[in-house]
Amino acid sequence: MNKTHIRPIRNDEDHSWALARIEELMDATPESPEMDELEVLAQLVELYEDQRWPIGMPTAIAAIKFRMDQAGLTRRDLEPYIGSSGKVSEVLSGKQPLTLKMIRALHRHLGIPSEVLLGSPDSQLADDGLAEDADKYPLREMAAKGWFDGFGDVKGRPEEAIRWLSARAGVAPGKLAAYCRKNDEVRQNAKMDSYAFQAWCLQVFARAAEVPLRTRYESGFIDDEVLRQVATLSVLPEGPRRAQEFLAQLGIRLVIVEHLKRTYLDGAAMLMTDGSPVIALTLRYDRIDSFWNNLVHELVHVKNDLQGDCDIVYDDFSIPSIGSEIERRADTEAADALIPPGVLPKNVEVLEDLDTDDLVVYARRARVHPAIIAGRVRNDTGNWKKFARLVAHEEVKSYFA
Question: Which of 226, 274, 314, 359 is placed for a possible disulfide with 268 were both Cys, Cβ 3.0 to 4.6 Å?
Answer without folding.
Answer: 314
